[in-house]
Amino acid sequence: MSQAQTKQYNDLSGFISNTRNLLPGLALIAIIVLLSTMLVDMGIGQRYGLSPLIYSIVLGMIVGNTFFNKTVHLTLEGVSFAKSKLLRLGIILYGFHLTIAQVWSLGLQAIFIDACMLISTFVLTYCFGTKILKMDKDTCILTGAGCSICGAAAIMATASVSKAKTAAISQAVTVIVLFGTLAIFIYPILFPMVTNYISASAFGVYVGSSVHEVAQVVAIGKVLGEDVADTAILAKMVRVIMLAPFLFAISFIFYNKKNRNTSVKQQNSPSKRFLLPWFAIWFLGMIVLNSILPLPQSLVDSILFVDNILLMMAMAALGLSTQLGTFKAAGPRSFILGLVVFAWLIGAGIALQLLFA
Fold first, then answer.
1. Contact criterion met (CB below 8 Å) for 159 and 314
2. Tell me: the pLDDT tens digits for 51-66?
3. Rounded to 5 degrees, what angle do the CA atoms 132, 134, 139 make?
């Protein structure tokens, strides 16, 4: 056998071996995803905006804190693969949820409101968490991303940039689940009071610019009517599209910022260079592609179906890696942070709508 043939054989053997190592973990994740899908199809938790993504992480946590430790030697590689590679692919394909036309149809005023809510919410979360509550930077950044953009999907995308620990991710997702679910009950109560001063359509922008998860926005919209639902979903999609520039910003500001007082040698070292989150560029590229090419709706639906599965798998992998002890170690600070930010989203969102009304 020639040297070239030997190399090809070794490469093929390595690929097969790596694939086999991934299969047990991916199979376990597939079971969790299937159960999550069944729960949604049965309508369990639908009125509370519990999406397949949320079910995946919850079921993953249940398994992760029961018998997962007994199988970790077989499943760890597949779980790690889903948390990293499949997550990034899922975020890229998430761009097919959006088009440029959708954003512009909402109007510049709504886009400005979304931007104001995003920036102010993230700054509040980070400053209050790190300065007042003395929480670690990663947990505050991830919580800020989830509250200000699009919930668990934003947390996972930001975690890909920050390389945050599982404990920080889990705490941030818990805040999103808890207060996002609470929003589903509070916003319908606010609707008759606030619409004495603003239109139902403007209330939809309020919902879309201040509620955590896409599924939670949809749940509120369905309760309050078509006018509210349409504008709420569009406003939420504008926040989602802001995920890409947000990732660039936090990559530069928090994780790749050069120290101006360091030497030129230190500034040019690999650890100090700005690491571009390429999956965010691909995410924007998919939005542009979905906007300019006449793709068949059946193809887009298929892509979104695959994307949903990938994100569910990433969430299940996160749940499997989460130990309940991390929440106990965090104490009440994550929940205090979530409560303060939740109050800000409600109050600032109404204030902006009244200001522009």
1. no
2. 787 788 788 888 988 8
3. 110
Q: 319 or 288: which carries more pLDDT confidence?
A: 288
Please report whether residue 3 resides in a domain: no
Cβ–Cβ under 8 Å, residues 200 and 353: no
The SS3 of residue 284 is helix
Distance CA(184)–CA(260), nearest Å, equals 46
- 291 occurs within a structural domain: yes
The answer to whether position 112 is within a domain reads yes
Report d(CA 273, CA 33) in Å as an integer: 38
Residue 300 half-sphere exposure toward CB, CA atoms < 13 A: 15
pLDDT confidence of 124, banded at 50, 70, 90? very high
344 CB-near residues (< 8 Å, 6+ apart)? 120, 121, 124
Helices (H), the chain: 3-41, 52-64, 68-81, 87-93, 100-106, 108-127, 137-145, 152-162, 166-194, 200-210, 214-224, 226-241, 243-250, 264-267, 278-292, 297-320, 325-330, 333-356
**pTM of the predicted model as reported, rounded to 2 decimal places:** 0.68
- The CA–CA distances, whole Å, from 265 to 256, 261, 273 equal 15, 11, 11
Q: How many domains does the chain have?
A: 1
Cα–Cα distance, 77 to 82 (Å, whole number)? 9
Query: What residues make up the domain containing 339?
Result: 22-255+277-356
Question: Contact 162/255 with Cβ under 8 angstroms?
Answer: yes
Q: Is residue 118 part of a domain?
A: yes
32-53 residue pLDDT tens:
999 999 988 888 877 766 778 7
pLDDT digits 0-9 by tens, 151-194: 888 888 888 888 788 788 888 888 887 888 788 889 989 999 99
Q: Which residue has the tokens 């030497």?
A: 263
Among residues 101, 117, 98, which one has the least CA distance to residue 109?
Answer: 117
- Distance between CA atoms of residues 328 and 1, nearest Å: 59
